[in-house]
Structure formats: structure tokens, C-alpha cells
Amino acid sequence: MSERQPTPKLRASQNPYVLMPILLLLWGSVAAISKLVLGQLDSYQLLFYMNGVGVLSFLVIALFRRGKLKALSVWRSKQLLLLTACGLFVFLYDFLYLEALTRVPAVEASMLNYLFPIFIVLFAIPFHKERMNRYKLIAVLMGFMGTVLLTTKGDFTALRLTNLTGDLLAVLAAISWGLFTNLVKINKQDMLLSTLYMTVISFVLSAFGMFVLSEPALPHLTDFAGVFWLSMCNIVLGFFLYIQALRYSTASLVASFTFFTPFITLLFIMLLLGEQLSAIDGFAALLILSGVPIQRLGQRLNVGRAKAETEAEGSAQL
């Protein structure tokens, strides 16, 4: 099965080189905004309200598009099962990562969580028959090395594992996102209805988590503004941009873009919270930023090589 590659003919709304940078800017703001909101709400309450805002947003959009919701009635059980699994893995990613943060230092949890681009690439091999070539491997390794440098600040003593349960939870969160990415790429149903259905699944699971592991609490107006922004970044706009990019590119290319996330996050922290970036941060960013051009170079070389082989075969037949 051949890999679907982005071409210059793609519209801006389809091109991963346009969609993913916008998404990363949205994702990059999440850490700083979450830090402010979590002063009043706990993680479970925040997750509940984020998914709630997402469900309401998608419902409003669907209601304004007459007849859109009726399409749900013709979905087959196989399609519903696929999107239910997607919603489950989205919830598990958030839930497991938050649980990991309660058990291990943030640096340790983040380092393990940023394994998810690697799992995206690995799961793409059996799910989508994508090939692991040297350029993808180099891009993944450089992205991971940059992420480790960025999260440890070059102090590799920070790599010491402190709690096995917390570490396993962080890795399981990364695996969950890798599975979600590859499963949602299989989905061919309407994007609005798909995201609505997945968000409903996550909302139901979030409600269960809040009532079992926490307690209901109404956010203040200022906190709700933060919740609304996080819901737009992570769910409403985030889902649209991420799924759209996956539909028009390979999972491995999207994975390389996601390695930018910790770097963009640090930029927002620097701007909003006044922290400074070090020389190590700059070098780590260079490693991360190099991943996408390397994959792009590999794509062009592979296309050129395939074209040359085709021309050679044609000449031989003549």
C-alpha cells in the first residue's frame, strides 16, 4: 500500500505544512494556560469542563447544518466501534498523563510522554503499511534526542526514574495517543460528526472520572475563560486541524511535527511567564526542527529515485 504524500496541489485547508504549525501554536499555549486554571480546578474537573465545552460547540455547529445529525443513523456498527475506540484513547491519554503527573516529577513524566511521536510512527507500520525508511528513522531519533535535551536541560541525572507506576502511566499515555492517531486516520466519516461522537465518549468518561476521583465544582468566570480556550485548542480546533492533517499526509510526517510541541510550549512559557530559554534549549530546538526537513528531503529523493527507475524500465522496454 503506497503512502499518501502531500503535494503542492493541496489547498491550505488540506496541507499538513499549513495545518500542523497552526495546531502547534494552539497546543503550545496549553501548558501556560493550564497552569493558571489548575490553581482553581483540579485535573479531573478541568478535563470534564473541557470536554463539555467541546460537546456543546460541536452540537451547535451541527444544528446549524440542517440534516447533519441524521447521518449518524446510517453509521454501521463497525464505524461506531472505531470512533468509540478513538474517543476512549483520547480520554486515556489525558487521564493517564494526569495520573502520571501526580506520581512522578513533571520532567520525568513529560520526557516519557513525548515518546508518543515514536509510537505514532511504529503503529503506522501495521495500521497503514507505512515503511520505516532511513529518513523517518533519523527524524524520529533527532526529535527524541531534542525532546530529552529540552526536558532535562542537559542534566541527564534527571533521567533517573522515581516511581515505576508513574513511569508506566506516562508511557501508556504516549501509547494511547499513538493508537488514537492511527485509528482516527482510518476513519472516513464526516469530520464534524466524528469529532462530536469522539468528544461525547470522552465527556462521558470524564464525567465518570470527576464524580469517582474528584467532586463537581463550578469554575469562576475567569477560570471558565481559560477552560474555553483550552477546549478550543485541544478539542474543537485541535481535533479539526489534527484529523485534517492526518487525512492528507502520512502518520509519520505528522509525528515529526508533533516533536515541535515541547519547543513551542517553552516559547509560550517564556512569553507568558517570563522564563528564559538557554543555549541547550536552542540546540534541542534545532534537533527537533530538523526532523521535518529531513523527512521532506527523503520524500523527494524517493520520488526522484522511483521516477528514474520508471524511466529506466521504459527505456529498457524500447
Question: Helices and strands in order, then pairings?
Answer:
Blueprint: H1 16-28, H2 30-37, H3 43-64, H4 77-101, H5 106-113, H6 116-128, H7 134-152, H8 164-186, H9 191-213, H10 221-247, H11 251-258, H12 261-273, H13 279-289, H14 291-317
Helix pairs in contact: 1-10, 1-12, 2-10, 3-9, 3-10, 4-8, 4-9, 5-7, 5-8, 6-8, 6-11, 7-11, 7-13, 7-14, 9-10
How would you characterize the overall build of this protein?
The chain has 14 helices and no strands. The protein starts with 15 loop residues before the first helix and ends with a helix. It has one domain (about 25-65, about 75-310). The protein has about 325 residues and is an all-alpha fold.
What descriptors fit this protein?
single chain, about 325 residues, mainly alpha, 14 helices, globular
